[in-house]
Amino acid sequence: MATNMKKLTFHLIGNAHLDPVWLWDWREGMNEGMITCRTILDLMDEFEELTFVRGEAAVYQHIEAHDPKTFRRIEKQVAAGRWDVVGGTLIQPDTNLPAAETFARHFARGQNYFLSRFGKAARVAWAADSFGHCAGLAEVMAAAGIEGFAFTRPMADVLTLAKPAFWWEGPGGARILGYRPPVGWYGTDRDDIRKRLDESLAAAGKCDLENVGIFYGMGNHGGGPCRQQLREIRQWAAEHPEVEVVHSGLHQLIAALRAEGKELPTHRGEMNFTLRGCYASAAHFKFAYRKTEAALASAERTESMIRGALRQPVADLGAAWDAVLFNSFHDILPGSSIERAYDDQLAWLGGTLHQAQRTELAALNALAQRLDTRVAKPAGDYPAANVMLAWNPQPWPFRGHLELEANLDYRNLAQYKGRPEAVPLRVLDAAGRALPFQRVPVENLFESAEWFWRQRVVVPVELPAFGWNVFEYGWVEGAAALAAAPGGAAAPAPGTIANDNYRVQAKLGAAGVAISRNGKKLFAGDGLAAIVVEDKGGAWGSDAEESQSLSTVLERWRVTQVETIERGPERAALWVQLAGERSRIELTFQLCRGRDAVDVTARVLWNERQARLKLVMPVGATEAEFETPAARVCRKPCGEVPGGRWVRVTGKAGKFGFASDALYGFDCFAGEFRATVARAAGYTQGRPTDFPAWRPAMDNGELKFRFLLNPGNAELPALAQWLEQPPVSLVVPAKAGKLPRSGSLAALSPATLQLLALKRAEDGRGLVLRVLETAGQECPATLEWLGQKLDLGGVAANRIATWRLRRKGSAWEAVRSSILED
Q1: CB-based contacts of 674: which residues, under 8 Å, 6+ apart?
Q2: Cross-strand partners of 427
Q3: Count of structural domains, the chain
Q4: Distance between CA atoms of residues 617 and 671, nearest Å
Q5: What is the CATH number of the domain that holds 141?
């Protein structure tokens, strides 16, 4: 029995952890939500002391739509104070892998639903089972009005905390009152509630807390408290008069901990790492999720900006975002669900990606209708040039190379039969100036020396921030080819490409690809390599092994084919295949004129079991800075870790930057920086013996992604953003219009502000702008918006800031807002 302290209060928090997708599909999971809630409500009628916590707006929405009687019963218990609406999110997401704005949107969508149905938003977040928590999550939660955060992972054997209750401080100083129970997890087995209470009593004396939260209830597929547990709680309470046992909720627990007035310890930074295999499992789904998440954010920004400029209604993309949010669930995105479930979730993402593309296309076509896109009338019966609208979806100017591809005529160019390279082409910018270009292979295999009326060129362009340029591209008889500028990209020798900064060389039989910058090797040893390591950890991985970076190498792939496919002067490209006994990776390296980066397109043909594919970059790595959701985190080598769009590695020879549009798992091991591409574990596999030969391995088949290498300089975050959300080019009709051929709708400054969202407000009144300060120092924010300069005020270091943009007469105004109000 605890001594020298006030009477203990045990807060018994009944819950039923419900995975809407895991060992079942979403249909079964969501209907189980109805079944569980009806069961709990019946039990509440029987046991008047019972209280219950339930988060996940998606579960409530499903019940409201399909079982309105049960929903009305929930409303009554919420009003009575016995049913605690917690969490604030649409679903319980993974809390390491989604983008910062995805977390913000979870709270915006979830909290607004709770406000509309129950008249109040959740103030305590709840992550029963998520596999670790990124450092920036505290900042997102604070910006969404969250005051407390209860969780059970990582457990004490992974993450040591001074007390069960503590202040979790984000990079910008936001403070959330965190709580992890001193013993146990979020649930209990049917007959162990007395043991949980006894263990909690023994631990309470070491906690120096008067209020102890105890989570209980059956729950890995619904469930919740049961009669036996409730009866045993009554008996235990009667046997322990020194403890006040109350049936409680998360809001009541957090309020009681605050009221104690004790000085609590502070935990700063991330709360990781656990179940590390989930940073890379189910790569085929992760890649699709990342593409959809990025495409939706870009399309929404484009739609909001163009419709705002044209005074047109902005599309409501709430349902599309709900799809992204649902698929960020902590047993979907991490890769720990059954194969059949992933078939469903990929189909769901596919529909969302298509909606994003349609939305973007509609907005760009609406803009094109207002632009001056006229072209010169061609001579005789020749076709007119194509009008290409290029759009930059980012808040800073784009200077780089863009691919333009279109038909030159409606049939084959007979007079150039056998000489496709002789067709006179011309590319003009918005001012009518001829641009240098390079012909590159078209995507289709129908084109040949006989049929080649469609061609592709790569052109150096400049695009304004959040702006456009109109280009003319086509077959123009008599067009003179521009003389190539000196330098640029080239293929100086077989298996070698180079530009002003880099040289990439691949040799048959080599164990890697040699890359140098300014004459100095970027990677030591074999260069950029691919290895297969033993990985028997199952879907969740083996934390013990992954903390040591899985060092048992099964294969070191070798270069088996090399082909130069583009030779400059604007871009050179080298195709390299590295292969092992059963699998291979195809890497297409591109070097552009004047670009201080190596761009790589990767295609993996994977056919392994209990193995992991890693890209290896020997740089003498001593530490690495990772972009993670809403924060940048520096880590010493510590095994497999989660990362975001880019990593800045510090090595013995300096810094090096890596960015990708798909990968999440990384490690630094023996001086090497390594990126995990795929794992060949079984779906929901636990132990190695759970993986018989007839069971399928995750990710066997084809995987495609892109990455880039750069010096790790200040340009890395912007390069990573363009990698995920690149400029768009679109063939549009030629016509007169009032808007110029080049222009900008907006620009955000300073560059240290990361744009998280530009979107339609949830209530439809105006637009919402959200940013994150990334340089670690307070700055004044300015938005150039539709010809007007808006002074947004200061943004604190490493903090999230949100504004509502509204029309005020003929002008616009920016009013400080919050995630909860957007």
Answers
A1: 549, 614, 615, 616, 617, 666, 667, 668
A2: 473
A3: 3
A4: 9
A5: 3.20.110.10
What sign has the CA pseudo-torsion 669, 672, 675, 679?
Answer: negative
Q: What is the percent of the chain where pLDDT is above 70?
A: 99
Cα 186 vs. chain centroid, distance in angstroms? 27
Per-residue confidence (pLDDT) for residue 312, from 0 to 100 = 96
DSSP letter at 139 equals H
335 within some domain:
no
Give the domain-ending residue among 229, 259, 289: 259
Per-position DSSP letters for 706-759, written without gaps between them: EEEEE-S-TTHHHHHHHHHS--EEEEE-----SB-SEEESEEEESTTEEEEEEE
On whether residue 557 sits in a domain, the answer given is yes
Q: Which has the closest alpha carbon to 278: 335, 338, 327, 341?
A: 335
What is the rounded CA–CA span in Å between residue 795 and residue 787?
23
How far apart, in whole angstroms, are the C-alpha atoms of residue 154 and residue 738?
Answer: 58
229-243, 438-452, 581-595: which has the minimum mean pLDDT? 438-452
Q: Residue 64: which of 54, 75, 53 has the closest Cα?
A: 75
**Pairing relationship of beta strands 800-808 and 425-428 according to DSSP bridges:** unpaired
Give the pair of three-digit tokens for residue 316.
């409501």
Which residues does 210 contact at the CB level (< 8 Å), separation at least 6? 5, 6, 7, 8, 9, 256, 260
674 Cα distance to chain centroid: 20
C-beta separation of 536 from 623 below 8 A: no
Is residue 407 situated within a structural domain? no
Sorting pLDDT into bands at 50, 70 and 90, what band is 412?
A: confident
CATH of the domain at 781: 2.60.40
Range of the domain at 815: 745-822
Q: Give the largest CA-CA distance in the chain.
A: 101
Co-location of 680 and 791 in the same domain: no
Mean per-residue pLDDT over the chain, rounded: 95
Beta partners for residue 622, in sequence order? none
Are residues 668 and 763 both part of a single domain? no
Residue 122 is predicted with a pLDDT of 97
CB 521 within 8 A of CB 476: no
Work out whether strand 611-618 and strand 672-679 pair parallel, antiparallel, or are unpaired: antiparallel
User: Cβ atoms within 10 A of the Cβ of 247, count?
Assistant: 20
Asked, for residue 55, whether it belongs to a domain, the answer is yes
Q: In what order do the strands lie in the sheet with 454-463?
A: 398-407, 454-463, 438-440
**Cα distance between residue 634 and residue 636, in whole Å:** 7
Query: What pLDDT, in 10s, does the model give residues 198-241?
Result: 999 999 988 889 999 999 998 888 899 999 999 999 999 999 99
Instruction: Kindly report the backbone phi and psi dihedral angles of residue 406, in degrees, each rounded to the nearest multiple of 5, phi listed first.
Output: -165, 165
Render pLDDT for 350-382 as a digit per residue (tens, 0 to 9): 999 999 999 999 999 999 999 999 998 888 888
Q: Closest Cα partner for 553 from 642, 662, 670?
A: 670
Radius of gyration of the chain (CA): 29
DSSP SS3 for 324 = helix
Cα(first)–Cα(last) distance of the chain, in Å? 49
User: Does residue 2 carry a pLDDT above 50?
Assistant: no
What count of residues does the chain have? 822
Token code pair at residue 274: 């656990």
Return the closest-CA partner of residue 648 out of 718, 721, 713.
Answer: 713
* 773 shares a domain with 670: no
Residue 77 tokens read as 């218990």
Cα distance between residue 87 and residue 420, in whole Å: 61
Long-range contacts of 376-380 (CB under 8 A, 24+ apart): 378/476, 379/477
Q: Which of 259, 279, 299 is the last residue of a domain?
A: 259
Q: How far apart (Å, rounded) are the C-alpha atoms in residues 288 and 585?
A: 19
What tens digit of pLDDT does each residue of 419-434 get?
A: 988 999 999 999 999 9
Of 191, 112, 192, which is closest to residue 144 (Cα–Cα)? 112
Distance of CA 21 to the CA centre of its chain: 19
Q: Which amino acid is at 475?
A: W
